[in-house]
């Protein structure tokens, strides 16, 4: 149970890391946008994997975890990445 709590806290930290004030220079803006994109993708994958771990048992659970990681990563990417 401690591992699940730590995973939730790390996921929340990644999600909150995207909430930053607007920087001044364009290079800093590009870096922050890239960081938010990566953080959202990784955070979504973590949350999706945790959700998948609660489903099924045995081999089905492994497939659910893999699917949750993939789907969570895609959703996290879509929510945080701003493509020009």
TrEMBL record:
Signal peptide: 1-17
Keyword line: Signal
Name of the protein described by the UniProt record: 17 kDa surface antigen
Record organism: Mycoplana dimorpha
Species lineage: Bacteria, Pseudomonadati, Pseudomonadota, Alphaproteobacteria, Hyphomicrobiales
